[in-house]
Amino acid sequence: MSDRKLKATIVGVGMVGGTIASNLAIMNLFDELALIDVVGDMAKGKALDISQAGPVMGYDTHIVGGDSWELMKNSDIVIVTAGVPRKPGMSREELLGINYRIIQEVSKKIRELAPNSIVIVVTNPLDAMTYAVYKITGFPKNRVLGMAGVLDTARFRTFLAWDLGVSAKDISALVLGSHGDTMVPILSYTTVGGIPIEKLLPQQKLEKIVERTKRGGAEVVELLKAGSAYFAPAASVCEMVEAIVLNRKRVLPCSVLCEGEYGINGIFIGVPVVLGRNGVEKIIEFPLREDELKALQKSADATKKVQDEVNALIEGNKE
Ligand code: TXD
Prior knowledge:
Blueprint: E1 7-11, H1 15-27, E2 32-36, H2 40-57, E3 62-66, E4 77-80, H3 92-113, E5 118-121, H4 126-137, E6 144-146, H5 149-164, E7 171-172, E8 175-176, E9 184-185, E10 191-192, E11 195-196, H6 203-214, H7 216-224, H8 231-245, E12 250-259, E13 265-276, E14 279-283, H9 290-316
Parallel strand pairs: 1-2, 1-4, 2-3, 4-5, 5-6
Antiparallel strand pairs: 7-10, 8-9, 10-11, 12-13, 13-14
Helix pairs in contact: 1-2, 1-8, 3-4, 4-9, 5-6, 5-8
The structure holds 1,4,5,6-tetrahydronicotinamide adenine dinucleotide (TXD).
């Protein structure tokens, strides 16, 4: 038997990162979890707290926390949730600049200390930050992916299930595109126990649900008053992690580098992929309805603009 230990690191253990850490411990996927945050004592405190839930919840994962980058050494999976959310009066460009600097530092450390890891990015603006990690680490494209589609799809499935009065488990759906206003819920391939959704709900109702899905994050933010959603985002990340670690070959929408698929080139955007031990094992390309394909390409155009800003930041940072 191999004595190789599986290790995951979470960089940024705020609301989303802390919840991911707790979930991963409960899921018993790793021998070791490392929690890194600029606020070192907070990361240490969360590591301690989650460890102490172990005897009750039935796990004995070794969990460490702090502000030292060394903690991530030799991780198999690195999850990046470090960043700041937008504050009132702050422009998206300002947020992009601040989070880019954080992502830049994190990416360099990943390259140095966890060179063989698979990186899952959560920080917003999601698709552009995933692109930044890809560029700065220099990792192959199968080892850098962003989480958004699983969350957006989970929200879509939840709303559909409520409307139909059925279990959300029986709703198979797909939300593609960028994590933002231009996301594309694919109605033509959404089914309820195998039945096409468009046969079960009138167009007007579906449009309302699509709109609510697009505002899914904002709706939670408005209610929480401080911060944004974290339970559903963390659960979504963990589903991706499980698919990779257990080599499940799950088909999930993730932000990955498209190179010609769906007519999109050189852009990180949400498309269906097969997730397994090698990370992104394959992008699944299938014929979309014309309006859906157009919406996906429009979403890619919007992402490209932000990605170009990232490119400018990368260029500006070269000595
Ligand atoms: O679908 C999605 N991808 C998203 C994305 C769903 C939910 C949240 N989404 C984004 O994730 C959100 O817009 C943020 O950019 C991140 C993290 O959200 P969270 O709600 O967890 O934010 P917090 O609670 O503010 O946590 C961020 C932590 C915080 O503890 C900081 O101290 C830390 O990041 N941080 C850092 N850690 C390490 N290194 C550096 N440089 C650093 N800077 C901040």
